[in-house]
Amino acid sequence: MVVQLFGLFIGFGLAVSGGVSLIMYLNLLTNGMSFTDYILFVSTRIECYLFLIGLFVITLSIYIPRRKNNHYL
Question: Do 40 and 67 meet the contact criterion of CB atoms below 8 Å apart?
Answer without folding.
Answer: no
